[in-house]
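Q: For a teaching handout, I want to show students what a protein-ligand complex looks like in token form. Below are the inputs, and the small molecule is MTE. Please produce the holo structure.
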Amino acid sequence: MVSSPRAPWAVSGVLAGLAGLATSYATAMLLTIRGSPVVAVSELVIDLTPGPVAERAIAFLGHWDKPLLLAAVLLILGGLFAYAGLLARRSWWRSSLVFVALAVIGLVAVVLRPSTDVVDGLPIAVGLATWLVALSLLVRPLSRQTGTSAAESGTGYDRRIFLIRAGIMGLTAVGFGVLGNAIGRGRSQVERTRRLLKLPVRQGPVPAEARIGLAGISPWRTPTDRFYRIDTALVVPTVDPADWRLRIHGMVDREVTLTYQSLINREIAESWITLNCVSNPVGGDLVGNAWWSGVRMADLLAEAGVSADADAVLQTSEDGWTCGTPLSTLTDSRDAMLAIGMNGLPLPIDHGFPVRTIVPGLYGYVSACKWVVDLEVTRFDRIEAYWTGKGWSEQGPVKIASRVEVPTSGAQVPPGEVRIGGTAWMQHTGIEAVEVALDGGAWQRAEVANPGTDDTWVQWATTVEVEPGEHEVRVRATDRLGNVQTGVERDVLPDGATGWHTVSFTADE
Ligand SMILES: Nc1nc2c(c(=O)[nH]1)N[C@H]1C(S)=C(S)[C@@H](COP(=O)(O)O)O[C@H]1N2
Ligand SMILES: [Mo]
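A: Here is the structure, written as tokens, with MTE included.
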């Protein structure tokens, strides 16, 4: 059998490999996943290295330990890529197996990381797809004339096509690498600035009365890293506080432009506020409670002097997302604020650093603009905001909601007395009462822990008596205006879901 020289095959493997690493790296940076699959594998190597060996290596190599480890991983990868390319001479399948095996190792490394979710696997999928496509593109001109007369082309393969493809592949890989690096670097610089910031904010103490003391219930204060995140940003805006400006304009007496420094020099208001998403289904977890620190929106708007004809504020974020907020909710006595801190620290980048809006009593999509840079005082009949242009309601006041968290759906409990509990919320109105009904029976009052504010959720708990067998418990809340949560089931679109959350469980000896 006549075949082309070996070198181009090895080069194909390496180029395809690098292209896959580059696209997976760019994807990881784009999805703001901390570190690429290569970094995950390197970290896995560190984890798997016996402690004493690692210590000796670190002592010997000093600060060079991690760059050297990365370099070693890349070198080994390079060798495997070349090997895969050579294998492709005989069978494309065997070489693609090498890539699949590498992807599996990467996936294992990513999954073994603390707090991974499904999207973390995406860079690997993108990388694997790139590998397979790139490899087949590169080796096709190599194998085309294999087996035919080598004399025809003189070299035994389609050299020109191969070189062109290899060149394009190399450039594309470099392009993705540079792109990923630019995205990653912008974020890490802003993250460094964020960590060094000393803000005049406190860490609010959780009111003792807010806790119902039932194991398994959501913590009253949602830890920042477990706070839900919703936004349309593919690449999260990374705004340096030094560059941040907020313009307040439109139907105002005088325009106001704020810098970050001028904002944090003002009086800081702080409060516990529960934020939830209009897309949260009944019983869902797109809700969280945090201690927010910021500057009262009412004071800022008073400085600008809003026109009596205005009824809305169109908020715009750095990435162009918009929401329309009722002016009255920003000027009344509630703690609507331009938040700079969350749970006692500067806002995380993903939650709107350096500045976002928080308005108690409104769903996030009409109020909680992250990375906010522009407030236009206006009228609802003149604007269309991002989500209202897509079928969601113009007005987004929160709805009464309650959730059974204990027992969990499908749980097995001993028969007899069973503790039931969860959370309920109706921000800015407050929760007056929570009731549960067992197996479609009468509503019975639960105990409600009073956090001392109407702007947050409450924890509730009660005890029911159950016989062995299948059971179903549902919950409903009543707000402080006497409105009882409706049992009518409605979807999240256009203005938030309604219905009673129901959980089934089994009582078993
Ligand atoms: N810039 C920007 N701000 C935004 C959004 C967005 O897509 N972009 N989503 C909103 C929605 S729908 C919700 S529910 C909240 C969620 O805030 P969180 O991610 O801090 O939990 O942010 C709001 N602010
Ligand atoms: Mo939302």
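A: Two things your students might notice: Residues 147-154 have pLDDT under 50 and may be disordered. The longest strand covers residues 469-479.
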